Amino acid sequence: MNTQANSIEIEVQAQEQGQLDAGFLFASFKNTGDSQALVNGVTLPPGEAKGYPFVGKAYQAISYNSQDSTLRILYIL
Predict the structure, then answer these.
(1) Which of 24, 29, 35, 62 has the smallest count of CB within 10 Å of its CB?
(2) What are the tens digits of pLDDT across the range 48-70?
(3) What residues does each domain of the chain span?
C-alpha cells in the first residue's frame, strides 16, 4: 500500500492569527519571535515549541495567534 503525506511549512508573521484545519496528522509550532504567542489557547513563550505528534489519527482544528511575535509552523496533512 502506498501512502503519501504532503509536508507544508508556513511562517506566520507578527499579529496574525489563524488555524490549522481539522485533518492534519502532525504539527509543530515554534515561537521564533520576542513575545508570547498563543497555540490552542496555551501561551507559548519566546524560543519554545509545542508539538502535536503523529498518533495514528487526524487531529481536530488547532487555533493560533502570534500576538506581536513570529510562529514557525510545520504540519503534515
Answers:
(1) 35
(2) 999 999 998 999 999 999 988 98
(3) 7-76
